[in-house]
C-alpha cells in the first residue's frame, strides 16, 4: 500500500468530517461529546488499474460535497418499461411474475438493460428507490448456470453494515433460489466458523461487510480471483466508516476484467476514488438530485428548550404507531430507552454495542409491532426497511446532511408518505439551518412544548401511561427459539429463525417477498 498517499487522504478526510460542533450538543441530556469518525480512503489500485482509471481525468466537484458524475463514453441502452422486455432467464422472470412484479422502478428500468449487457454502472437513487434489485437481478442473471468451487465465489456484494447485508440477502434470496444459486452472508458479530463452512460448501454469491470478508480471506476460507461481478452498495457510508482501505484491498483481488456496479443514495468525494479507479466507462443513472429529497416526505424542525426536551421526546414516543428515534451515542440510546420503558412506552435500543442476535431480535420485534419505539444510533440509518413507518425523529440532530437523509430514509419508502422531525435546541439552530441547506430541504419550522396541541398535530404526541413496562419475548418467538437448524452447510446468519417462515402459507410468503423486493433500498 502507498502509505504516503494514504496518510494524505486521511488528513483530507479528517478535515472534511471534523467540521461542525459536537460538544455543544451535550446540554440536551441525550448526547455525550466525542470526536469525528476516522476515515482512511486510499489504497493501491489493482494490476488493471490504469485500464479502469483512464478516460475521465480530473473532474470538478459539485455542491454539498458531491463530485461531478462522469460522462459516459459509450451510449447507454434505452430504459426498459417492463421486466419482460429484459434479457433475463425464464425462471427469474417467472419468479418476478409470481410476486406480482411486472414494471421496474425507474432506477431498475434505466440500469438493468446495461448491467445485463455487462456494462459497469454508477447509480444514485434515494433510499427505497429499488437499488437492491437494480443490481441484484443483473448479478443473478449473469451468474446463472455457473457453479462456484469451494471457497471461490463468482459474485460479490459489499455493504457497510450487518443490517444492510441481511436486507440484501432477504431481497435476493427468492430470485437466487429460482436460479438454483447459493448465497452466503458474511458479516461480523456472527459465527465465523459457520460462514467459513458456507463458503467451503460453495456459494455463487457472497453478500459481505468488508471487515469480516477480509478476515475470512486471511484465514484461507475465501478467494476472490473468480469474482466476475462486484457490487458496492452504499459506498459513501463505507468511506465514512473508515472501510475504504479494506474495500480497495478487496477490489484489487477480484477478476481484473470483471463487471463493477456502484449504487448509493449519495455520492460524495470519497466515492470519487472508487469511480475513477475501478469503474470503466460506466453507465451513469441518477434518480434524484444530490439532496436525495423525497416528495412524499415532510420535514419538520421543532425548536425546543433544553429543560423540556426529555418530556417532548417522551410524548412523541408515546404516540399511536411506531417511530424510530435517533441519538448520537450508545449511552444516550440506553438512557432514553430505560426512561421510556419506565414511562410506559414499549421501547427497545439498537446500537453497535448489541450483539447481532440481539439486534436482529430487536428489529423483528419492532417490525411486528411488539416494540413500538426503536431508539437507535446511526447503525439503523441504512439497511433497515420497516413497512408503514411514518415517523422518524432526530432527538439529536445529525452531524451532516448525508446522515440526515439516510436517517429520514427509514420512512416514505417506495412511494409511501412519512415525516422526519428534528428536535433543535437554541444553540443548534444555526448549524441545523446550514445542514438543511446542504440537503436541499426547506423544512416546516415550529416552536413547541410538551403537552401542546401543535406537538400533537405534527407528531401525534400524547402523554405516556406512566405504568412501567417490560419487553418480554412474543409467544411465537419463544416457541421458535432453539428450533432452527444449527451448523447446516450453507446456513446464513439468522437462517434458523427464518426457517420458521417456511411454514407460513404460500400467499403470506409471496406477499412478504414482494414487499422486500419492491421496497429494498
Tell me what the structure shows.
With about 525 residues, this protein is of the alpha/beta class. About 40% of the residues lie in helices and about 10% in strands. The chain has 20 helices and 14 strands. The protein has helices at about 5-15, 50-55, 90-100, 105-115, 130-145, 160-180, 190-200, 210-220, 235-240, 245-250, 270-280, 310-315, 330-345, 355-370, 400-410, 430-440, 455-460, 475-480, 495-500, 505-520; strands spanning about 120-125, 155-160, 185, 205-210, 230-235, 260-265, 285, 295-305, 325, 345-350, 375, 390-395, 420-425, 445. A seven-stranded parallel β-sheet has the order 3-4-2-5-6-1-7, sandwiched between helices. α4 packs parallel to α5.
Taking strands numbered 1, 2, ... along the chain, how are they ordered across the largest sheet? 3-4-2-5-6-1-7
**Mean of residue pLDDT values:** 78
Low-confidence blocks of residues: 1-64, 289-293, 480-504
Tell me the radius of gyration: 23 Å
- Structural class call reads alpha/beta
- Biggest sheet architecture: 7 strands, parallel
EC number: 3.6.4.-
Region (Disordered): 1-62, 457-521
Biased composition (Gly residues): 45-57
Domain Helicase C-terminal: 306-456
Amino acid at each position: 500500500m502507498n502509505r504516503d498517499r494514504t496518510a494524505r487522504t486521511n488528513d483530507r478526510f479528517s478535515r472534511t468530517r471534523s467540521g461542525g460542533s459536537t460538544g455543544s450538543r451535550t446540554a440536551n441530556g441525550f448526547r455525550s461529546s466525542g470526536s469525528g469518525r476516522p476515515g482512511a480512503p486510499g489504497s493501491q489500485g489493482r494490476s488493471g488499474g490504469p485500464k479502469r482509471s483512464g478516460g475521465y481525468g480530473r473532474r470538478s466537484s459539485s455542491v454539498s460535497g458531491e463530485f461531478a458524475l462522469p460522462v459516459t463514453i459509450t451510449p447507454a441502452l434505452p430504459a426498459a418499461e417492463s421486466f419482460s422486455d429484459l434479457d433475463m432467464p425464464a425462471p427469474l422472470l417467472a419468479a418476478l411474475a409470481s410476486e406480482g412484479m411486472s414494471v421496474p422502478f425507474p432506477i431498475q428500468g434505466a440500469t438493468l438493460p446495461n448491467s445485463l449487457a455487462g456494462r459497469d454502472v454508477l447509480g444514485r437513487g434515494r433510499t427505497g428507490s429499488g437499488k437492491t434489485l437494480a443490481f441484484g437481478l443483473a448479478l443473478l442473471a449473469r451468474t446463472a448456470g455457473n457453479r462456484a468451487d469451494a471457497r471461490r465465489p463468482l459474485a460479490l456484494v459489499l455493504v457497510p453494515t450487518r443490517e444492510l447485508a441481511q436486507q440484501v440477502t432477504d431481497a435476493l434470496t427468492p430470485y437466487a433460489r429460482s436460479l438454483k444459486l447459493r448465497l452466503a452472508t458474511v458479516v461480523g458479530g456472527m459465527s465465523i466458523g459457520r460462514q467459513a463452512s458456507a463458503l467451503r460448501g460453495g456459494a455463487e454469491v457472497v453478500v459481505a461487510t468488508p471487515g469480516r470478508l477480509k478476515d475470512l480471506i486471511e484465514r484461507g476460507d475465501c478467494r476472490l480471483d473468480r469474482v466476475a461481478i462486484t457490487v458496492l452498495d452504499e459506498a459513501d457510508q463505507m468511506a465514512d466508516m473508515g472501510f475504504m482501505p479494506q474495500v480497495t484491498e478487496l477490489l484489487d483481488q477480484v477478476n481484473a476484467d470483471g463487471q463493477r456496479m456502484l449504487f448509493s443514495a449519495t455520492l460524495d468525494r470519497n466515492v470519487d476514488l472508487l469511480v475513477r479507479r475501478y469503474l470503466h466507462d460506466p453507465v451513469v443513472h441518477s434518480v434524484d438530485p444530490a439532496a436525495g429529497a423525497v416528495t412524499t416526505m415532510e420535514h419538520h424542525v421543532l425548536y425546543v428548550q433544553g429543560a423540556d426536551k426529555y418530556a417532548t421526546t417522551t410524548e412523541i414516543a408515546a404516540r399511536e404507531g411506531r417511530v424510530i428515534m435517533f441519538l448520537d451515542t450508545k449511552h444516550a440510546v440506553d438512557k432514553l430507552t430505560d426512561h421510556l420503558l419506565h414511562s410506559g412506552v414499549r421501547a427497545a435500543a439498537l446500537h453497535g454495542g448489541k450483539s447481532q442476535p440481539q439486534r436482529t431480535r430487536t428489529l423483528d420485534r419492532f417490525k411486528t409491532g411488539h416494540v413500538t419505539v426503536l431508539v437507535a444510533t446511526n447503525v439503523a440509518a441504512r439497511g433497515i426497511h420497516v413497512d408503514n413507518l411514518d415517523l422518524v425523529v432526530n432527538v439529536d440532530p445529525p452531524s451532516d446532511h448525508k446522515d440526515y437523509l439516510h436517517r429520514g430514509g427509514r420512512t416514505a419508502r417506495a412511494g409511501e408518505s412519512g415525516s422526519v422531525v428534528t428536535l433543535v435546541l437554541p444553540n443548534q439552530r444555526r448549524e441545523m439551518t446550514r445542514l438543511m441547506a446542504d440537503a436541499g430541504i426547506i423544512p416546516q419550522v415550529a416552536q413547541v412544548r410538551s403537552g401542546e396541541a401543535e406537538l400533537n398535530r405534527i407528531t401525534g404526541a400524547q402523554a405516556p401511561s406512566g405504568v412501567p413496562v417490560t419487553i418480554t419475548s412474543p409467544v411465537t418467538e419463544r416457541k421458535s427459539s432453539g428450533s432452527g437448524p444449527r451448523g447446516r452447510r450453507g446456513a446464513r446468519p439468522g437462517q434458523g429463525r427464518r426457517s420458521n417462515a417456511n411454514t407460513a402459507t404460500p400467499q403470506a410468503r409471496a406477499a412478504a417477498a414482494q414487499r422486500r423486493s419492491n421496497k429494498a433500498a
